[in-house]
Amino acid sequence: MRTNNDKVKNVIISVYFILIVLAILMATVFNAFSDLTNNPAITFAIITFAFALAFYLVHAIAKYFEYDSDGIKIVVINKGLLLSEHFNYREHKIEIDKEDLIGYKFHNYFVYRSLVLYIKGHHGHQKKTAFNVTLVARKKRRYIRQSLRKIVKENS
What we know:
156 residues, three-stranded antiparallel β-sheet, 29% strand, alpha+beta, PH-domain like, four-stranded antiparallel β-sheet, single chain
């Protein structure tokens, strides 16, 4: 089974655009925030920190995910959505044989979802690897879960 979340790229680009427009809007109507504090430097620092935090959260959550279990190997890829064609600085890729998969688990946090794969190591040790599946649709996560369940059942 093959699946990915490539359709979400346009949504993330739109979110970045909206954040940039809001930052420019806040900079132009800076006097409207004078009610927060009397010191404009503190107000500017608060607004800058809020937008930096928003950009960081979007950057940390926005990842491309690809799952492929066709053939004798399982291939799972996580990489950044923006500039990922030119710079693979956030790429996390794993290729494992199906018989090396011990188990899996989906973790659902407030705004973050992850897939943890438990893999048989070289000397019988168990290794775990986590992937960001926050922007993968619920239906696709269900298909991934079914595929992984089938593989783990065949291995045991």
